[in-house]
Amino acid sequence: MWKVFPKLGLLKLLLAIFSALFLSALILLMGPNGGELSWNTFGDSFQLTAPITLIFVFVIFVIGKWGWLAFWKLPFLGAILHKSVCPNLNGKWLGEIHSSYADENGNKVTKEVELTVKADLFGFSLALRSLDGYQESKVIQSELYRDPRTGTFYLSYIFEASVPIPKETDDRLFDGAAKLEIIVKEEKTVLKGTYWTNRAWQRGMNTAGLITMERRHS
Q1: Which residue ranges run through the membrane (predicted)?
Q2: What DSSP string describes 131-159?
Q3: Chain segment 50-83, per-residue pLDDT in tens
């Protein structure tokens, strides 16, 4: 869904021009001149179709930003669209990270995280944070896509992490990435997959682990 218009600005411009030209030609063919083509009649037709084109672009924008959600929320159709066309991931997701990182006592670390997703037909963005406040993360690139081989949906992202007050064995800045499978069940949708970072890689302490998330219900 979110990859339909990868180059939004260019496609919107091309769509507006194409719509105006198409409607202009249609009016010429069906107009009182019997389809006679000239620059004067073309200019008049273009002036008539310009408002129609603007209205068309506005309607497409409204549907792309908010209107599509109405179809995804319908009782029967919404479930089919969510499972087969594209999952609606909008909202907040809570989950756990089971990391290979070990604390000073040698225990593997488990952390609670919150993922916020904002998506429409034109854009897709993520915000990720650790609930213990030790680490702050900023997602710099994200993608929602479908594997053409299996039909499985995946969510992948690259993030920059910072630790305001790091421990002696930790780094203040590092990067990471994750790939999560979107598992759509009848009762709920689950995000599950792996992540990895270059955290303290100079000392051979770069981390990886398992992430499992479920949508938070307000």
Answers
A1: 12-30, 50-72
A2: TTSS-EEEEEEEEEEE-TTT--EEEEEEE
A3: 777 777 778 878 888 888 889 999 989 999 989 8
Token representation of residue 91: 């909202």
Burial class (CB in 10 A: 0-12, 13-18, 19+), 12: middle
- Region class of 99: left (phi > 0), else alpha (psi between -120 and 50), else beta: beta
Smallest CA-to-CA distance from 155 within 209, 111, 193, 113 is with 193
φ and ψ of 206, to 5 deg? -60, 145
14-to-31, 53, 59 alpha-carbon distances in Å? 25, 12, 16
pTM flag (> 0.70): yes
pLDDT at 48: 65
Question: In terms of pLDDT, which residue wins out, 197 or 33?
Answer: 197
Place of tokens 């897709």: 124
Asked whether 42 and 28 are in contact (CB, 8 A), the reply is: yes
88-215 CATH pick, 3.30.530, 2.40.128, 3.40.1130, 2.60.40: 2.40.128
